[in-house]
Specification:
By secondary structure, the chain is mainly alpha-helical. It contains five helices and no strands. The protein has one domain. The longest helix is centred in the middle third of the chain and has 23 residues, at about 55-80. The chain is elongated, with a radius of gyration of 15 Å. The structure holds zinc ion. Zinc ion binds next to helix 2.
């Protein structure tokens, strides 16, 4: 199997699979597809964003929440908090769908 490496810190994808830990924030971007796949496999539960009336204030809120979750997830990855990563990943997925529906991303 092809073993990707993070261009920033040199961490290999196989190491991530072994330890569930990322070497640096850039690892998350380098291994994004694989990480998402790993998280999907581990956890199936969803996060529900609830009712969302159309308004731009809410749009902005959703977008800033989206940015925040990405940061939180990266940090969880770097700190090896895999459970938290799963949680953030679920929330991001739901939020992404909502943002797409609203044409924001
Ligand atoms: Zn890295």
């Amino acid at each position: 199997m092809y073993d990707k490496a993070c261009p920033a810190c040199g961490k290999r994808l196989s190491e991530f699979y072994n330890t569930s830990m990322l070497g640096c924030p850039n690892c998350y971007h380098a291994f994004e597809t694989e990480i998402e796949f790993a998280l999907r496999k581990i956890q199936g539960k969803g996060f529900h964003v609830g009712k969302t009336p159309q308004n731009t204030a809410l749009d902005r809120e959703l977008l800033s929440e989206y940015q925040r979750l990405i940061k939180e997830k990266e940090r969880a990855g770097v700190e090896g908090r895999f459970e938290d990563m799963c949680e953030f990943s679920d929330q991001l997925l739901e939020l992404k769908q909502e943002l797409r529906k609203r044409g924001l991303i």
